[in-house]
Design a protein that fits this description.
Pseudaminic acid biosynthesis-associated protein PseG; 2 domains; globular; PseG; six-stranded parallel sheet; 346 residues; Rossmann fold
């Protein structure tokens, strides 16, 4: 019988994006450091990151493109029956209490990573690493009273590379370099909008780093646009921290990379590209830690032109954004993450 300590159920796709898998990979690496064996269960669907998970040294058990939660649970249980599992970690908007109740007899403990707070969970441990004005009570009626909740960006799952750069002081005299990254797939094609704005209104004096993931459907177009304006094109990279440290300001979406930027104190111009990001982005903007320019359908090249002009004219206080975003994420990367402590302590 194959023995695995932790199973992670997570997916990536053209529609889902890459954020769920990337944060689970961070957790998997932390557990690996503690000599915990980790295995992933993922659907083999378009835009999956199964190859990247395997490249990071983790086994992946594949699921077909299952249609509903109960079928997903049944297929998962078929794998779990052959293993001795301590924890299952579930990071999936389509899975909730029904799925968790079905798999519970085959594991010792259940952890859920969520940020929607829109469904009940049968779990022992819950992580929501986003900021919300009401984050302390969002899950009060969605989990049992015995469930341990870790809520807010202080519990951000950070890659090790970020620990080495915490403490940098952000003091730009002017904006000379920008970073553009809207996630692995950039479904709403914000990258092209920003590049068009830069090209049309002669912001080409700026140094520009553009990052795209393997699931982006517009790679060739974006690469050509970068060549046309002299921007540096980066594809499916593992050095995003370096680019964040070098940038004066960033253009991106909500989600995990927004919190990584906040951790470093990199000022962020944020577009809401998915409904699940809306509340967190809006609340973080109200807190003064980012600039939220709105819902993607309402954002055009002209919207980005205005922001670029405001940056060039010094109308946006980047130092204040940096200070407030850094203060919001006080994750101490030098210490063992509380979630890891929970998992290895049981």
């Amino acid at each position: 019988m194959m023995v695995l300590n932790v199973i992670i159920r997570v997916d990536a796709s053209i529609n889902i994006g890459s954020g769920h898998v990337m944060r689970c990979l961070v957790l998997a690496e932390m557990l690996k450091e503690e000599r915990v064996e980790v295995c992933f269960i993922c659907k083999n669907i378009r835009g999956n990151l199964i190859g990247i998970i395997k490249d990071n040294g983790f086994k992946v058990l594949e699921l077909p493109n299952i249609l509903n939660e109960l079928e997903d649970a049944d297929k998962t249980v078929q794998y779990l029956k052959e293993m001795d599992i301590t924890w299952i970690v579930i990071d999936h908007y389509s899975l909730g209490e029904k799925y968790e109740s079905i798999v519970r007899p085959f594991v010792n403990k259940i952890m859920v990573i969520d940020d929607l707070a829109n469904r009940k969970h049968d779990c022992d441990l819950l992580l929501d690493q986003n900021f919300y004005s009401n984050m302390r009570n969002r899950y009060n009626h969605l989990v049992s009273s015995t469930c341990k909740k870790y809520l807010g960006p202080n519990y951000l799952l950070l890659r090790q590379e970020f620990n080495n750069v915490k403490g940098l002081t952000y003091q730009p005299t002017q904006v000379s370099k920008i970073l553009i990254f809207y996630g692995g797939s950039d479904q709403t094609n914000e990258t092209e909008k920003v590049l068009t704005a830069i090209k049309q209104h002669n912001f080409t004096s700026l140094a520009v780093d553009v990052v795209v993931g393997s699931s982006n459907l517009n790679i060739s177009t974006i690469k050509k646009m970068c060549t046309d304006i002299g921007a540096t094109f980066h594809y499916q990279i593992n050095y995003i921290t370096k680019l964040m440290v070098e940038a004066d300001v960033s253009f991106g979406a909500g989600g995990i990379t927004m919190w990584e930027r906040c951790y470093l104190g990199l000022p962020s111009i944020v577009t809401i590209v998915a409904e699940n990001q809306r509340k967190s982005v809006e609340d973080t903007h109200e807190h003064g830690a980012i600039i939220n320019i709105g819902w993607h359908e309402n954002i055009t090249e002209k919207s980005y032109i205005k922001v670029l002009k405001d940056l060039r004219e010094g109308k946006i206080s980047l130092v204040q954004l940096s200070e407030r975003s850094r203060a919001l994420v006080r994750n101490n990367g030098c210490l063992q993450h509380p979630i890891v402590k929970e998992i290895i302590g049981n």
